[in-house]
Amino acid sequence: MPFALGIVRQLSAAGHEVYGADSYSRAPGSHSKYLSGHFVYPSASERTEAFVDELERIITENAIDVVVPAFEEAFFISTQRERLDRSARIFVGQFPALARLHDKAAFEELVRRLGLPIPETVVVTSDQELEAAIGRFDRYFGRAVFSRGGVELLTNTGPLAGALDPAAVHPTPDEPWVIQPFVEGETVCTYSTVHSGNVTCHLMYRIPRQWHHSTGIQFESVDASDSLRLIEPIAAELDYTGQMSFDFLVTDDGLSFVECNPRATDGALLLAPEEIARGLLEPHADTFVLPPGTSTQLDLALVGDAFSDHMKRFPQTIRDLARVRDAGDGWHDPLPTLYSAFSLAHFAGASLEEHTKLQDAMDADMCWDGERISGTSEDDAKLLAALRSG
User: Fold this and answer.
1) What is the CATH number of domain 120-182?
2) Counting C-beta atoms within 10 Å of the first and last residue's C-beta, which end of the chain has fewer, N or C?
3) Tens digits of per-residue pLDDT, 274-330?
4) How far apart (Å, rounded) are the C-alpha atoms in residues 40 and 106?
5) Which CATH number is 185-297's, of 3.40.50.620, 3.30.470.20, 3.40.720.10, 3.90.1180.10?
6) 3-state secondary structure string across 348-362
7) Model-level pTM?
8) DSSP string covering 102-143
C-alpha cells in the first residue's frame, strides 16, 4: 500500500530503525532504502497461525519494540495481541473493537447509540429483504457489511448508478448487506492514531481525484475540528488502540458518518515524519490536528488514470502533476517505484486469471470479511456469532 511505504519513510526520517514485512516478496515498501531489513511471512488470512508464528519470530530475533500494522492484517494480529504483546508493543486494538467498527451494521448501531449522525441503515440477509429495502428509497446506496475501497457498490444514483445490478447481489445471513438512502454531499475521510481511547493525531482530507470512483489517488487536508469531536466518543467508548479512519459525508446539516476502516489509510501520507511518529509511538501525547492546505498525490496512478476514459482527464493530469506534490517527492528512494510496476503486473495477471477486480487481487491475502479466524478465543467466536445474528 502506498501509505505503508509512506509510514516506513516517515518513521525512519524521524530517527527510528524500521523493519518491514509482507506476504509478497516484491511488495514495494519492502525494498525501500529506509528499511533496516525486510521479511516475507505467510498469508495472514489463509495461514493465520503460521503468520502469527513468523511474526513472533521476527519480533524476537530482531528486538522489535513496536509493531505497526498497515492494513487488514491488523484483524489477524489483534486476535493474538496478548501473546505478541509479551515480545513487543502491538499498536492495534482488541479484536472486538476492530470487528464492531469494520462490520458496517454493528458500526451503525454503535454510532446511533452514541447519538452521532449517520443515515438510516437497513440490514438485509436475503434477496427478498434486499428488494424491499431498495424499494423504500427513491435513491439508494448499498454495500456488503464487510467491504472496502468502493470495490462493489449498489446504487441507482451518481456516477456508479447501475454499475452493479441488484439481481447480481444475493445477501445471506453470513454475508449481509446494508442499504441506506443516497445522501448528497462530498465524501471526506479522516485518519487518526489512538492510544487507549486517547486521540494523539488526527486529520481530515478530501479526495479531488479517485481511481475509477473507488480508491483515492489525490488528497488534500481540510479543517478537521468537527470530525475530531465526532470520532473522540467512539475512540473513548471502545478504549481503542491503533489507527482509525472514517468516511464522512459533508451535508447541509454538517458531517454524517458513512463507515469506519479500523486501520491505516492514505491520510497517513499527508503527515510530516515527526507528526506521525509522535502519533503512533507516544501513548500520552496531546492531540495533534493537521491544519488545512496540505496536498499530495500518487503520480503514477494519476498518469494511469489520465489514459482511461478516452483521455478526458489528460489536461487536468498535466496541471495536477505540475502543482501537487507526489507522495514520493524528496525521498530519493527509487526501488519502490520499480517494484510498484512489478507488483501491478503481478496482480493484474492474478486478477485476469481469477476473474476478480485488481483491488481484490491485491488485498486477498490480508483482508478480513467476518469469517472465523483460526486461533481466536471463544469470546471472539461468540462476538462473531452475535454480529452475524444482529
Assistant:
1) 3.30.1490
2) C
3) 999 999 999 999 999 999 999 998 877 777 766 666 567 677 767 777 777 888 888
4) 34
5) 3.30.470.20
6) HHHHHHHCCCHHHHH
7) 0.90
8) HSHHHHHHHHHHTT------EEE-SHHHHHHHHHH-SSEEEE
